Amino acid sequence: MAVYKCKYRIGFTDIYKNNEINNRAIIKILENAGGMHSDSIKCGYSDVERTGRGWVILAWKIKVLSRPKYNTEVETHTWVRDINKIFTYRDYEMYDEGGKLAVIATSKWAMIDTKRGKIAEITPEIEKDYNPEERHQQKTEYRFMDEMLIDYSEKIVAIAGHRMEFTKIEYQIIEFLSMHPGQVFDKERIYAQVCGYDAEGDSRTITELVRRIRKKIADYSEKEYIETVWGIGYRWKK
C-alpha cells in the first residue's frame, strides 16, 4: 500500500465557530490530497487531456474526531485499495499539528472515459502505478508477539502452535487489522473492508465480531492483539 502524504495550513476561509476547521475545508483538503497523489503518478487532473480519462467520486464516508484550529498545519495521508476493473476505494487520515488523528475518511471512485462519457476500465497498469510495492509483495506467514502466527496465503491463525478456528469474516478482520499494525480504523471502515462498501447491514456488527475474536484468542493467550481506541475504533497492537 503506497501512502501519499501532504501538508496544509488552515486559513481564514477554512474555519467557522471557535476558529475550528469547517466541513467544506475538510472535504477540500482530502480531495486535493487525492488529486495530488494521482497527479504524482500521472493519472490525475493534469493528465485528463492526454489520457482521455478522469476520476469521478461515487460516495464519501467521513468521521471527524476533532477539529484542528486556524493557522495550524494538518497532514493528510491517503492511499488507494481494493482496485478492480470498475471502481476503487481511497482512504484518508488527517492529523493535526500535534500528530493526533483528527479525521478518518473513505471514498469510492470510478474512472470515466471523458470522450464517450462512460465508465472506463481501471487497467492493471493503473493499479500498479498506485501500489508499486505490490508488484513484488506477497502475503507470507508473519509472527506477532512471539505467540501468534498468521499464514496469509493459507488463511491460518495459530497461537502457541494451536490452530485457531475463525469464521471467514472473523479471519478477514484479523487479516486487515494485522496487516496495518498500529493504524486506527473506525468500525465503518472495517465493515466496508470485510463486507463491502455497498453491503447491507450495520457497522455495529463489527463490535460483536471483535468480541468473538477476542474471546477465542483469550482461550489460548493472555495478550490483547486488538486494541479498542475509544471514540474511534480498533487497531492491531504493534
Task: Name the features.
238 residues, alpha+beta, 6-stranded antiparallel beta sheet, 4-stranded antiparallel beta sheet, globular
What does this protein look like?
The protein contains 6 helices and 13 strands. Helix 4 (168-178) packs across helix 5. It has helices at 23-40, 48-51, 124-130, 168-178, 187-195, 205-218, and strands at 4-9, 53-64, 73-81, 87-95, 101-113, 118-120, 142-144, 148-151, 156-159, 162-163, 185-186, 226-229, 233-236. The protein is of the alpha+beta class and 238 residues long.
* Rg, alpha carbons: 19 Å
Query: Average pLDDT value?
Result: 87
Q: Name the structural class.
A: alpha+beta
N-C termini distance: 18 Å
Low-pLDDT runs of 5+ residues are 135-139
State the shape.
globular
Largest sheet: 6 strands, antiparallel
| Secondary structure tally, helices | 6
Total beta-strand segments:
13
Order of helices and strands: EHHEEEEEHEEEEHEHHEE
Measured by DSSP, the beta-strand proportion falls in 25-35%
Short description:
The chain is α+β, with helices and mostly antiparallel strands and 238 residues long.
How is this fold's topology laid out?
Blueprint: E1 4-9, H1 23-40, H2 48-51, E2 53-64, E3 73-81, E4 87-95, E5 101-113, E6 118-120, H3 124-130, E7 142-144, E8 148-151, E9 156-159, E10 162-163, H4 168-178, E11 185-186, H5 187-195, H6 205-218, E12 226-229, E13 233-236
Antiparallel strand pairs: 1-3, 2-5, 3-4, 4-5, 5-6, 7-8, 8-9, 9-10, 11-13, 12-13
